[in-house]
């Protein structure tokens, strides 16, 4: 493939390498997201990408992926709202998607009868806007309304233009199936990063951009207000205002009958917030009482119970509770000063808490043991927290070896039913429903088809050893002889993330199967530090000055794939997105000898500027503050500054979205321009829509996927 050259700006000399952060950035003009010059550069690079990757192999891959995304056999996941089950659906006929509903009896059939509630394609055409679905929330009627047979009517629908994080919220009438315009007293929040949440049928909490000084440096609301129907949003009553340096504020109401509560949350930064119990909201007697737990802990309320999930050790009442533990207390007693806490979960060397799900009477713990799911059922004492009884414990035997099991409540207020989703790298997803505590076998409601032939394929979990001796798990998927190394080396893609305490778990992907595994490729996933696979400690081990450990872990997995005969450096590619894009940038610049190709998706790369671009300021707890002495360690993982024009680098594909208002597209643009100016092998593609997800519809997603897989197959010695 030929490599185009690019200049920083017309007539500008090439920048020094490594790039000196004390001099003016010659590619700063590419941060002008929709500037004419910047978009002209983007169009030129996109055209080059299309020429370089286009052809029969690209078209075949694009069609194969599109068939998966548009398949009518996908599982239509639903949410229960009264007697209806709602689903948002996209396929070939519904590019933008359709919000629809059915009954449980109909949903159980092979061909449910769906009633369209909102057609986004029709809405987009009528309004001339490329709407992307961001979700909906429905107000739960009061017991009196339910007894009177009143239908669920009031919904708040979130829509994004082009997929950006900044969206709008509009009130929607579920009975009349129409938006309620502001002229009729409907709640309408104009485009911004923010939210509306129901208080009652005539009142909402609104957090949004109210004008200068009302948004934080991270670009999120600094104020939350109580907004009453029929009044201008600007006149909504201020409930809480954070400081100029906070990350965000919000408020919500629990609608559980008998346990209605209002909570205000002040996000200080990632992994640190304050939660307040609010009483008398919107009146002169309003009171906010802080729930006295560590700022790093997560607090959740269910009826009379409070759960506290710890990220750090907590010493209280003469007892020290370990980070990663889950504690329970009676909420009223805790607020009155009691510190009688029950340990519901405590981590071990191999286990961590992946999630908790309340039903009406039970609590389901989803535990990871060496990145494999175990489900436990806890039942609080029937007499309540005041009696000091013990929690009954049992198991929910679902899933299997190397499978991921997810659990969600069907109706947390009235039911002990849960949705159960089981999936694996070679196991299509299955959706079941079961009643916790019933002892009955789950009812399988839906099963996704196999989108690729898994005959002769296998999944293996292995462990690599990082530079400091840490044991790092990873999964390998491919043909049996390739996974064992006996028939290698094979073209291999290694994927990773390693940030924000996010655990990467096995899951079925028809796209990966069709575009990669069926063609003889091997797919591997590294569970590196910075993620949440082993709880908070695994995450904290790679924060700020210790960020290098995540990259050392990933490099260790790459070396292990070579040492076990699965692949060679020339046939090993890697991919990461977002924080994983920063990982990919570091693999590219710190370990170029380990890879034959690198894909860098919607990335952070200029770590000197990141905290000044869009939501970047909210991530300083993860990476550090480059405007302080932290820069001394941050520059060690800033790919834009690690680049050296004299070094050899593997071919690289950068992808981003013009509509990404979370991670600035300037990161990918500038890094690509810097490398192109030095004559490196760079492919670049920027989708105009899509936001941080990269694609706004299935057609865009299929094109993006074909770009990725075609690039990899060309560069890693496939038979394309």
From TrEMBL:
GO biological process entries: proteolysis
The UniProt entry, under SUPFAM superfamilies, shows: alpha/beta-Hydrolases, Peptidase/esterase 'gauge' domain
Give residue ranges for domain Peptidase S9A N-terminal: 22-259
An example of a GO molecular function for this protein is:
oligopeptidase activity
Supply the Pfam families for this chain: Peptidase_S9, Peptidase_S9_N
Biased composition (Polar residues) is annotated at 1-11
- Gene Ontology CC terms: cytosol
Q: Which InterPro entries match?
A: AB_hydrolase_fold, Pept_S9A_N, Peptidase_S9_cat, Peptidase_S9A, Prolyl_oligopep/macrocyclase
Any idea which UniProt keywords this protein has? Hydrolase, Protease, Serine protease
Q: Where is this region: Disordered?
A: 1-24
Pinpoint the Peptidase S9 prolyl oligopeptidase catalytic domain residues: 516-717
Q: Which PANTHER family match?
A: PROLYL ENDOPEPTIDASE
Please state what the protein is called. Prolyl oligopeptidase
What organism is listed for this UniProt entry? Promicromonospora citrea
Its ancestry begins with:
Bacteria, Bacillati, Actinomycetota, Actinomycetes, Micrococcales
């Amino acid at each position: 493939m030929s490599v185009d050259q690019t200049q920083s700006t017309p007539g500008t000399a090439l920048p020094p390498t490594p790039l000196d952060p004390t001099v003016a950035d010659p590619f700063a003009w590419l941060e002008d997201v929709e500037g004419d010059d910047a978009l002209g550069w983007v169009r030129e690079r996109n055209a080059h990408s299309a020429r370089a990757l286009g052809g029969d192999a690209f078209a075949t891959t694009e069609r194969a992926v599109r068939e998966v995304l548009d398949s009518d056999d996908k599982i239509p996941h639903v949410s229960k709202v009264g007697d209806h089950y709602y689903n948002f659906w996209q396929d070939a006929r519904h590019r933008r998607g359709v919000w629809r509903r059915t009954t449980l009896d109909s949903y159980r059939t092979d061909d449910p009868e769906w009633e369209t509630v909102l057609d986004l394609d029709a809405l987009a055409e009528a309004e001339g806007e490329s709407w992307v679905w961001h979700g909906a929330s429905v107000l739960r009627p009061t017991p009196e309304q339910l007894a009177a047979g009143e239908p669920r009517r009031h919904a708040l629908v979130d829509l994004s233009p082009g997929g950006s994080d900044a969206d709008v919220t509009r009130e929607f009438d579920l009975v009349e199936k129409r938006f309620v315009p502001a002229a009729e007293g409907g709640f309408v929040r104009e485009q911004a990063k923010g939210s509306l949440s129901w208080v009652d049928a005539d009142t909402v909490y609104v957090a949004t951009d109210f004008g200068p000084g009302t948004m934080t440096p991270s670009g999120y609301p600094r104020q939350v207000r109580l907004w009453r129907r029929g009044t201008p949003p600007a006149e909504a009553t201020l409930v809480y205002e954070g400081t100029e340096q906070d990350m965000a504020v919000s408020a919500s109401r629990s609608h559980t009958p008998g346990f209605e509560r209002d909570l205000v949350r002040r996000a200080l930064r990632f992994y640190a917030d304050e939660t307040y119990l609010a009483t008398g909201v919107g009146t002169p007697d309003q009171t906010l009482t802080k729930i006295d737990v560590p700022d790093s802990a997560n607090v959740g309320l269910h009826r009379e119970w409070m759960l506290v999930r710890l990220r750090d050790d907590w010493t209280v009442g003469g007892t020290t509770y370990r980070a990663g533990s889950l504690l329970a207390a009676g909420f009223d007693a805790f607020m009155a000063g009691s510190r009688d806490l029950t340990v519901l979960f405590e981590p071990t060397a191999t286990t961590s808490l992946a999630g908790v799900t309340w039903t009406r009477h039970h609590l389901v713990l989803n535990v990871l043991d060496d990145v494999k799911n175990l489900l436990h059922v806890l039942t609080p004492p029937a007499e309540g927290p005041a009696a000091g009884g013990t929690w009954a414990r049992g198991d929910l035997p679902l899933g299997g070896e190397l499978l991921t099991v997810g659990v969600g409540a069907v109706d947390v207020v009235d039911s002990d039913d849960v949705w159960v989703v089981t999936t694996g790298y070679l196991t299509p997803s299955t959706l079941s429903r079961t009643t916790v505590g019933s002892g009955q076998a789950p009812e399988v409601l839906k099963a996704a088809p196999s989108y690729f032939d898994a005959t002769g394929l296998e999944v293996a979990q292995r462990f690599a050893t990082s530079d400091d001796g840490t044991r790092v798990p990873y999964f390998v998927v491919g043909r049996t002889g390739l996974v064992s190394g006996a028939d290698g080396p094979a073209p291999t893609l290694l994927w990773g993330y390693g940030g924000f305490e996010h655990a990467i778990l096995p899951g079925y992907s028809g796209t990966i199967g069709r575009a990669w595994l069926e063609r003889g490729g091997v797919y591997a996933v590294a569970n590196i530090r910075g993620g949440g696979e082993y709880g908070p400690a695994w995450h904290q081990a790679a924060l700020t000055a210790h960020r290098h450990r995540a990259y050392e872990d990933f490099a260790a997995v790459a070396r292990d794939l070579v040492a076990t005969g699965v692949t060679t450096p020339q046939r090993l590619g890697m991919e990461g997105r977002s924080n994983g894009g920063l990982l990919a940038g570091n693999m590219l610049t710190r370990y170029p000898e380990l890879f034959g190709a690198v894909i860098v998706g919607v990335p952070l790369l200029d770590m000197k500027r990141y905290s000044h671009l869009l939501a970047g300021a909210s991530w300083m707890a993860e990476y550090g503050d480059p405007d302080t002495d932290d820069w001394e360690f941050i520059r060690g993982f800033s790919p834009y500054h690690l680049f050296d024009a004299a070094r050899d680098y593997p071919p690289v594909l950068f992808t981003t979205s013009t509509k990404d208002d979370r991670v600035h597209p300037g990161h990918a643009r500038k890094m690509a321009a810097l490398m192109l100016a030095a004559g490196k092998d760079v492919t670049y593609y920027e989708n105009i829509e899509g936001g941080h997800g990269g694609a706004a519809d299935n057609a865009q997603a299929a094109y993006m996927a074909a770009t990725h897989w075609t690039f990899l197959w060309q560069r890693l010695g496939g038979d394309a």
